[in-house]
Amino acid sequence: MADLFYGYERPDGKVGSRNYVAVIPSVVCANEVVEAICGQVMNCRALLHHQGCCQLPPDLERVTDTLISLACHPNAGAVLVVSLGCEGTDVDRLLAAIEQTGKPYNIVRIQEIGGTAKAIADGIQKAQRLSMAISGMQRKAFDLTHFIMGIKCGGSDATSGLASNCAIGYVADKIVDQGGTVIFGEVTEFIGAEHILARRGRTPEVGAKILQKVEEMENRAKSLGCDMRKGQPTPGNIEGGLTTIEEKSLGAIMKSGSRTIEGVLEYPEMSRGKGLWIKDTPGREIEILTGMAASGAQCITFSTGRGAPQGFPILPVIKICGNPNTYERMSDDMDLNAGRIILGEKSIEEVGEELYAKVVRSLSGEQCKGESIYYSKSMDIWCMGPVI
Amino acid sequence: MSERKLAVQVQPIDNVASIFAEVNAGDTVEVMARNGSIDPIGVHEEIPYGHKLALRDIPKGETVLKYGESIGIATMDIKRGDYVHVHNLDSARARGDWKE
After folding, report:
1. Which of A159, A225, A226 sits opposite B50 (nearest CB)?
2. CA separation for the pair A203, A212 (Å, rounded)
3. Which residues of B touch A211 (CB under 8 A)?
4. To probe the interface with B, which of A244, A249, A250, A343 has the most B CB atoms within 10 Å?
C-alpha cells in the first residue's frame, strides 16, 4: 500500500495541503492594505514582501515570476492581488497566470479606488467572498506522487550535519522512491561540497550547472573583497562549532539524501518534474522559504541546531532539531528532537521515520509548531540587482 | 547520566572530530570512529559543546579534514588533542580578501 495524504485538489490538478485565500501585494507599498484585509477575513494569508518597484528590469521580472508561482501554489485555494497602481511588477501577467489555474481570484487597486481605507474596505469584501467560496472544499486521498517537499537547514551547528540533516536526507530518499518530488537549495552552503553534488547529477550537464551556480554564488560573495566568514558561516554557526563554510556545507548537503539530482530550478520557478531537484537560492530563511514555496512545495522540512523559528504563511514548516539541548530549551518551536541521535538513543532511520510520519500527517492538516502560532510574516523575494 | 565525553570521527581519514560534551583541560575524550572503535585523547584546554579537537598533528598549511573532505587550512601547527576552530583553521573558499 502506498502512503496517502489528504489534500485539496485544485482545478489545475495540483493538490494543496492547506486551503487559504492567498492575499498578495504586487509591490511593497500594498503590504499595509494586505495586512488589514488578512486581519479581518477568516482563512486569509498575507504573502508580504519588499519588492516590486525601483528595481532593474530582470529583478522586476523575477518578482513577477515569483508572485505568479506563489499565486499558483496549490495551498492557495483562491487569490486576492492587491496592487498600488504605479508599480514595476507586471500585474496583468500575474492576473493572466492566476486565470489559467481556474482558481477564484480578484484584485484590489489602491490608487484607482481612491486610497488606503477604501482599498481595505474593498479588499475585505472581496476576500470574504473568496474565503466563503473555498470554505466548503473537502480533502481527498492522494499518493505522494502529488507531493513536493522543500528542505532547508537554518541556524546550524555541529549537530546538524550528523543528526537532523541526516534524518531529513532519509525522508528525502523515501519520498523520491515513492515518486514524489524533493527540492533543496542554499547554494551558498554547497561551497566546499559542490563536487559531491555534481557527481550526483542525472547528466554531466546537470553536474556542470550545479558547479556554475556555486561559482556564481561564490563570486557574488567575493565581490565585496572580504572574507565571507560571519556572513557565512554566521556567528551562531561559529559559536555552534562550525568553523568554515566548507564544514557547514558538508553537513548541509546531508539533508539532500543520496538520490540522483535531476536538475537545477531557477529561483522563481515552479517544480518541473519528479525526483530530487536543486533550487538556486541563498541560505537566508526569508528568501529560501519563498523560493521553496514558489516551487509548489506543500510542506518544508527544516533542520536546525541553534533554534531557527521561521515559518511561511501558506504551508507547514516542520522543525527538526539536531541539538538535544536546544530542543529542551525551545520545544515550543521544535517539532522533532533529532538530538536523540547525538545522545545515542535513536538511529537516523528511527528519527527519519518519525519525521516522515509527521510530514504525511502535516500534509493532511496537522499543524506544526511554528504554524500553530502563525509565524508567517518574515518572508521576502531574493533579487539580484540594486534598488535604484 | 553517563559522564563519558564522546566525540565523533565521521570518516577514517578525518584529522578532527566533533565533541558532543563540555570538555575541560585534563579531560579524556573518547573519539568514536565509524566502526565503533574508541580512541581516547587527552585534552589540554576547554572545548565547547559541538566544537572540534585534533586527532593527529596537523602542520601549518595542511588541510583539515572532516566528512572525509577539506574543511579548510591550518593557520598554525596543531597538535593532537588541540582545540580546532577559527583561531587555527581558515576557510579556503569565498575569500574576497585574498588576492588572486
Report:
1. A159
2. 14
3. none
4. A244
B7 shares contact with chain A (CB less than 8 Å): no
Is B71 in contact with A229 (Cβ distance < 8 A)? no
Asked if A345 reaches chain B (Cβ–Cβ under 8 Å), the answer is no
Question: Are the beta carbons of A20 and A12 closer than 8 angstroms?
Answer: no
Q: Does the CB of A282 have a partner CB in chain B at under 8 Å?
A: no
What domains lie within chain B, and their CATH numbers?
Answer: 6-90 (2.30.130.110)
DSSP conformation letters of A224-276: TSSB-TTTSS-HHHHHTT--SHHHHHHHHGGGG-SSPEEEEE-TTPPP-SSEE
CA distances from A367 to A11, A335, A338, A354, A362 (A): 25, 10, 19, 15, 6
Q: Look at the alpha carbons of B31, B33, B38, B40 in this order and tell me if their dihedral is positive or negative.
A: negative
- Fold classification of A20-134 is Rossmann fold (3.40.50)
Cβ count within 10 A of residue A115:
10
Which residue of chain B has the CA closest to A306? B50
Angle between helices A57-71 and A91-101 (to 10 degrees): 20
CA closest to A250 among chain B residues: B67
For residue B14, with 0-12 CB atoms within 10 Å meaning exposed, 13-18 middle and 19 or more buried, which class applies?
Answer: buried
- Give bridge partners of residue A182 from the DSSP assignment: A149, A276
pLDDT, tens digit only, all 388 positions of chain A: 689 999 999 999 999 999 999 999 999 999 999 999 999 999 999 999 999 999 999 999 999 999 999 999 999 999 999 999 999 999 999 999 999 999 999 999 999 999 999 999 999 999 999 999 999 999 999 999 999 999 999 999 999 999 999 999 999 999 999 999 999 999 999 999 999 999 999 999 999 999 999 999 999 999 989 888 888 999 999 999 999 999 999 999 999 999 999 999 999 999 999 999 999 999 999 999 999 999 999 999 999 999 999 999 999 999 999 999 999 999 999 999 999 999 989 999 999 999 999 999 999 999 999 999 999 888 999 999 999 9
Q: Which grid coordinates belong to A125?
A: 469584501
Closest-CA residue to A342 (of A205, A157, A195, A171):
A157
CA distance A187 to B93: 13
CA distances from A232 to A153, A322, B91, B96 (A): 13, 20, 11, 13
Q: Phi, psi at residue A309, to the nearest 5°?
A: -95, 0
How many angstroms away from the CA of B67 is the closest CA of chain A? 7
What spatial distance separates the first Cα and last Cα of chain B, rounded to whole Å? 52
* Domain residue ranges of chain A, discontinuous segments joined by +: 20-134, 142-372
